[in-house]
Amino acid sequence: MKNIYVTKPYLPPIDKYEEYLTKIWNSGVLTNNGPLLIEFKNKLSEYIKNNNINLYCNGHNALECAIKGLNMKKGEIITTPFTFVSTTHAIVNCGYTPVFCDIKESDMTIDENKIENLITDNTVAILPVHVYGFPCNVDALEKIAKKHHLKLIYDAAHAFGVFKNNSSILNYGDISMVSFHATKLFNTIEGGMTVCSDESLSHKLALIQNFGISDYEQVTEIGGNAKMNEFCAAMGLACIDDIDLIIKKRKEITFDYLEKLEKIEGIKTFKFDDEGIKYNYAYFPIIVDKETYGMSRDKLSEKLNENGIFARKYFYPVTSDMECYNENQNFKDANVSIARSVSQNILTLPIYYDLTPQDVKRICKVIKK
Fold first, then answer.
1. What local confidence, expressed as pLDDT, does residue 33 receive?
2. Which of 30, 115, 201, 333 is 20 to 30 A from residue 229's alpha carbon, by CA?
3. Do 109 and 103 form a contact (C-beta atoms < 8 A)?
């Protein structure tokens, strides 16, 4: 019996990718804002209806460039501990102090009602995360940011393809960062993107991602090398036309899971019914209630593994409890009880483009048993 892993990269038809490789060989350009990257950038701009985008070698570098590009005084950035550790690393690597805000049980995004109590004279920004593709309360967050004159940076690593009232969720805040890593629903092998609120900020990020070079003899910003290459742009171009099909297939898998799991006591699933939201179905998380289900999340994970099904405890632990951060007393004392509880009971089930109904049935059968 085949193993089923939590995710699997979407691969376009190989001949389609080969067509773009031929273009690379014909141009002789491998990187440095080549013709395929420009073509890919234009396609993305058309998809999200925003021209102020930049492409990167990966999402983490994109997030660090975003933080640096806002040119904020050193201070505190309010964020969520329920995220991949990259979010917290980016804040710290850029010289800022993360301040952790708890999450909502309903969708696991940052609790906007708890943010203002954490704002101090040292606060310079809010960095929420669109978790699993569930969008944050962007309207409430924008009001808070404007009221307190704070920058608003979204970690939208999971949110490509999410729309709110027919507008891409990436168009909110000062900057949104997206990941195009192979594990994401839309990938460029490795890659990332920033979406900015204005052209001047986008231009500044373009400089920062290329050593700050403004022309052959001028360096106007302190930056590094975070550019996307032509091979990754080629993969993006080979996949972008399939994005609606990819999301449609993931939606079918999601609702298949929901139907099969809804009557299993102790297994909590999440709603995909917020008005005005077009989801991307990036992940399928469940919460395991040990008392009701009769087995812990960890034990269920083991049982799935024994049956060749490899789900993921994602995100676990919360980033404020990671070994590299847990010696900080402020992080230990952070009032993030909901995030910690969710982290201890969350399990993301396999979901990817060619996961079959038979696979879903097999997974749910093990959970039910």
1. 94
2. 201
3. yes
Tokens 């048993």, residue located: 369
First to last CA, the chain: 18
Look at residue 333 in the predicted model and tell me its pLDDT.
Answer: 81
pLDDT at position 331 is 84
In a domain, residue 96? The reply is yes
- pTM for the model: 0.96
Helix axes 35-48, 230-240, angle to 10 degrees: 40
Residues 180 and 157: their CA atoms lie apart, in Å, by 8
Residue at 250: amino acid letter = R
Last residue of a domain, one of 206, 224, 240: 240
Backbone angles phi, psi at 37, to 5 degrees: -65, -40
Using CA atoms in the order 267, 111, 133, 207, what is the torsion angle rounded to 10 degrees? -150
Would you tell me how many other CB atoms lie within 10 Å of the CB of residue 308?
A: 13
Q: Are 106 and 64 in contact (CB under 8 A)?
A: no
Q: How many H helices and E strands in the chain?
A: 13, 17
| Amino acid symbol at 89 | H
> pLDDT tens digit string along 272-284?
988 999 999 999 9
pLDDT digit string (tens) for 154-167? 999 999 999 999 99
Residue with tokens 């449609």: 248
Domain that holds residue 323: 242-368
pLDDT at position 1 is 85
Instruction: Flag residues of the chain having pLDDT under 70.
Output: none
Mark whether 22 and 47 lie in a shared domain.
yes
Long-range contacts of 73-78 (CB under 8 A, 24+ apart): 73/124, 74/124, 75/122, 75/123, 75/124, 76/120, 76/122, 76/123, 76/124, 77/123, 77/124, 77/125, 77/126, 77/127, 77/153, 78/115, 78/118, 78/119, 78/123, 78/125, 78/126, 78/127
- Cα 353 to Cα 54: distance, rounded to the nearest angstrom: 27
Contact between residue 240 and residue 36 where contact means Cβ atoms under 8 Å apart: no
